[in-house]
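SEQUENCE, STRUCTURE TOKENS:
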Amino acid sequence: MGQEPRTLPPSPNWYCARCSDAVPGGLFGFAARTSVFLVRVGPGAGASLGTPPFRVIGELVGHTERVSGFTFSHHPGQYNLCASSSDDGTVKIWDVETKAVVTEHALHQHTISTLHWSPRVKDLIVSGDEKGVIFCYWLNRNDSQHFFVEPRIIFCLTCSPHHEDLVAIGYKDGLVVIIDISKKGEVIHRLRGHEDEIHSIAWCPLPGEDCLSSNQEDTSEEPETPNGRVTPQAPVTKGCYLATGSKDQTIRIWSCSRGRGVMSLKLPFLKRRGGGVDPSVKERLWVTLHWPSDQPTQLVSSCSGGELLLWDLSQSWRRKYTLFNASWEGQSHSRIVFNLCPLQTDDNKKLLLSTSMDRDIKCWDMSTLECCWTLPSLGGFAYSLAFSPVDTGCLAIGVGDGMIRVWNTLSLKNNYDVRSFWQGVKSKVTALCWHPTKEGCLAFGTDDGKVGLYDTYSSKPPQISSTYHKKTVYTLAWGPPLPPVSLGEGDRPSLTLYSCGGEGVVLQHNPWKLSGEAFDINKLIKDTNSTKYKLPVHTEISWKADGKIMALGNEDGSIEIFQVPNLKLICTIQQHHKLVNAISWHHEHGSQPDLSYLMASGSNSAVIYVHNLKTAVEGNLESPVTITEPYRTLSGHTAKITSLAWSPHHDGRLVSASYDGTAQVWDTLQEEPVCNFRGHRGRLLCVAWSPVDPDCIYSGADDFCVYKWLVSMQAHSRPPQGKKSIELEKKRFTQLKAKPKKKKKPPTRVPVKQESLDGNEEIRKESPGPVENGFSDAEGEADAGEPEVPCSLESAVSTEPVVYSPASLGFERSKAIISNKITLPKKEPPKEKPEALLKKRKARSMLPLSTSLDHKSKEELHQDCLVLATAKHSKELHEDVAAALEGRYHLGLFTDRATLYKMMELEGKGHLENGHPELFHQLMLWKGDLQGVLQTAAERGELTDSLVAMAPVAGYHVWLWAVEAFAKQLCFQDQYVKAASHLLSIHKVYEAVELLKSNHFYREAIAIAKARLRPEDPILKDLYLSWGAVLEKDGHYAMAAKCYLGAACTYDAAKVLAKKGDAASLRTAAELAAVVGEEELSASLALRCAQELLLARNWVGAQEALQLHQSLKGQRLVFCLLELLSKHLEERQLFECRSSSLYHAWTTAPEGPFAERVAAVWKSAFGLDTPEQYQAVFQKLQSIKYPSATNNTPSKQLLLQISHDLTLAILSQQMASWEEAVKALLRAVIRSYESGNFTIMQELCSAFLPDGCDHLREKLGDPHSPGMAAFTSLEAFLAYGRLYEFWWSLSRPCSKPSVWVSAAHSRKVVEHSLPVDDASPEEAQPEASCQPELSQPLALGSRLLQESERVPATCRELISDQRASLQSSQRTVAEVQETLAEMIRQHQKSQLCKPTVNGPDSSEPAQEAENPVCSPRGQSKEDEIQPVSLPELTKRLTEANERMAQFPESIKAWPFPDVLECCCVLHHMDAQRPGCVAPEMQQQAQELLQKYGKAEVYKRYCRACT
């Protein structure tokens, strides 16, 4: 075992974003309660060979409240500097070598939540508080600057390691802000995406944004627009990644150059490992991050169960992570992790240190991800220490955090081999005692009176005694069984457990039957000793090692010695005069047998007495003796004694623990002090001597520490005395003071053994499980893990000096050098004694004027007596006496009522003048004028709750009036809710509700209305509707929906819920509408939801949305076909393929005709099999009509409309309704044609008509059937597509071929490809050759060989004189209508201009209106068309309509490709490749162009042809 001191420190503070840090070289610091503990890690720690290389080396003492932040300076040359922030409002900068404060500031006016030492600026410390204020403090120049960026609670902040002016700030509501401190805190980015608290911010260790390639960034989940604004010339333009961890269980990676998120990591749910957690305890989630400097593509994060994860950012789409310490069960943290600190040791090992709610500090090797070592810590007072007599070196520690620690102090591999036990404890552990012979059997007692037995070698819960003490268990001891346990039948235990509780009772528990009743030994004592008087209150029990003698310590200071088997009283020691706290018997294996009769005792009197009881025990006296003289007296402590322990290695050597903050080793035989230990910062509560090392002692105190210290290394020999004792007490008084809480008056109890058990430890007794530094897990949500600290010092302890560790001396020296010009003045506490602080402020006098007149000179007081005597005993008042009484109104107390009223009137005026109306009101009440008081207070607006409460004394109507007046006064003071409550007190419910409604307190108004009015009252519905309208206007749609539901307006509830328009809202609205019976609305909303999901290409989600309503089965078929069509187009590479598309499994069906694949999927996925089913779906879909497509129709909407038509076509085919099938297929082709999407038109034809239209002609049969007209049009469009394919196959490929061709703009293509003047066709060929080609062009030679024969035949149908004539008439009608519209616009314009024109030109607009207008089409100068008159336009329109009427309806019913356009294409084909078009077809095309080509483009074309 190593011969070096050890420290079991307090737990690191919880719920702090940065309260631990480390610097290269192996120095680690963490904040615990009001201090910062320093740990040396690595070769420089000086640890024993084979043990983990770390050691607690010191403590930074100076703060008076919880330390909320800690950070080192990471600049070479000043690794010794660090900074800490505290709830006491100060930021202190420390030198860890001297453990002294270098400087400090108190700039913050609110609680500081976090701080960080800039990694770029050597002297810059940035801190933020809970009100959103940020302070930048420059250490060297003693200067500061503050910013108020957002009125939100700051949770964390981190300075950029690459840009000295950038700071990233995380807020409680999930907002992340990056500011530039060089530009007065200007916001560079506002990063929105998290939905809850930001716990950690980590900058990427590499500048720039090259470490994560673009394909690693997850851009699908983030909006395209930047999330915030980017300031020009900002330093962030160079870019850097930023990682944030949030309570919403996500980690987000942000791009600072783009101001947006690029990656989102969702924390996985991992089964909790280790098992050392109470499942009934709720804990907050905390996510902390660390970005390794040498691995920019890896990120370390904590998880919900305390696990650590190493994320691989290079494979973000896989969300790949590695679990730390995956191979060892129980080595990971069992609770949430708060901080991660990287550390590089002197031997260049890269380590990571973590602090957790499980109170362990763990060190991880980053190369192996394994746990190197664990430093346990304490979350409460160390109440009890006990070494196992069987398992040597096993030290049990009872702690105030509700857990028992068992420390194997002899472990050769781990100096801190500690196990924790919490099951069944649930309170502060105040007493421990090992079984003398049974291995692993540990008895414990708690603050709530519980006694139990733990088997430390088993994972089973403890056995709990069914008999509880009424108060704290002070002491436990194993001893021989006494009656009635020893008299029972059958097997009996060799030893039973005795417990002494705070109520003064000692109970005997049978360890074999803890479920049975425990016995009070007082009954046995009374029966054995025939005691008739009341027994004293017991406070301590101790058995002699041989089990024959028992000592009981009492509250009155007496100690009674009893002998087994019946507890005969043999001796009473009357030495102490105060409560006995500790009794300890000398061990049996001393060099002299008589030493085993030595018994040491300590009490609240600070003096230790040692008695030799050999004579009393062996004397066999008939009656008990009383001892009044001690064997030895040990004086030196200055406060009460709490614990005593004999050295098992020496004769007569004793160690004592005291409230004076020291532990003292005594040589009792010589009555001399040996050494004094002063390492604790609090009152010592327990002490134990090592059973194997004569030089080693363990001690625990209320500073949450257990120290192992060596007797030989102590510099002092006795406790501090005199002045030094007072100074140490003052130092101790500066340690942590909790935030003000309501002090509960302690209940009166008979024994008061240890004040530390009552109120000086801040753990609440109703703690449901293990508690943090003063706060249970259940309280952690509200109190954010504030450390447990002494609230105040009891008056009985306030004068007792307490010793500090040597670290505190540096703090005292540093006070002299603190000189900050920017430090805000703080109120110093008065320098009186602590008792003076407890004095209450004296109440203000009710009669100050008369009181002052009674404190005049002696002569005037004597004169008052004479005047009073004259006035009381004279039958008639003389004028001089009356005048004297007039000036001495204070004598009204002793004369008549009228004078008293006058005195009270003057006193009341004085109170009003001095601004104390409440005192004036009390005087009026004394007179009995309550109504006058109320009227005066109402006029002055000074009515109070107490005055209104007294109003009923003056009568019912006065009370009603007073309440109404007070309500009006409260309304003027904007206290509308309180005013409404007072109106309710006089049963004015409607007035109260209206008051709240008019001031927008709808929630409160509804609560009152529902509680006090009938359910059918119309005002309740009006409240719901009014609140719902306000919420809807403000965008709170979900809350507005609740209001409409409350008002029974279910339709409005569904509509407002869908108002946001996103898929989730629409789905919820659809479900809500279905629940309330709005079937039609539910169906429409479900369809809208599916369409929104369709935009995101979430096919699975869209189908799930459509499943919400049975009437949408037809739409499910449409969406199914659309999904298959989209997949088909993506596979043909005609659409941009998106990896985020979520397809169904049916899209991977085997290849085959497209229509057959669709029908097969419908049958398998939707159960469509019979003609009746097809007919029902067809009728529903046929009633849905879509508008015609245009060039501006979005592609996704176009595909949906086309899929609708194709669905009708396939349904018609399944029903053998071929006419309807041809019409639906034609509608789909026409939509793609009208939208200008030539590619989709061609793909539809190839997918549905791969072999042409001949099979449809056979299905239709009768050539005169109604469907034949649609078939003719469909066949023409098929030929139209092939015509273009043939033309483009003649052209040479362009550099960038495109599949998007606008058929509607073909005329423009032809126009631009033709020469404007009489140029030859050959000159136009280069432009014509640049027409876009199909995505899968065919080889030119083979294509010509295959198509040269067919092109004339297939295209002959397109060169139709009848169709050309019809289209010419239609163009004429369109041109005339456009010209008429232009005339109307010009006329309206002239009418608007007429009132503003005066003079010779005023008639011009009218003249212009009468003149015929020109054609709206732009013309060149030489081809300018003469103006056309209105009669001429009318004539043209009539003639065109007459011509159109002559055509049969079958021709006009369906669209047809533009005949003249096809003629132009044929001309180009012949010009590019002479002979590919038959001469008679070429001749027919030219004739049609010359006959019907009246438009300018065709006229120019005709001139070029001639």
Residues 1361-1393 form the longest helix (33 residues).
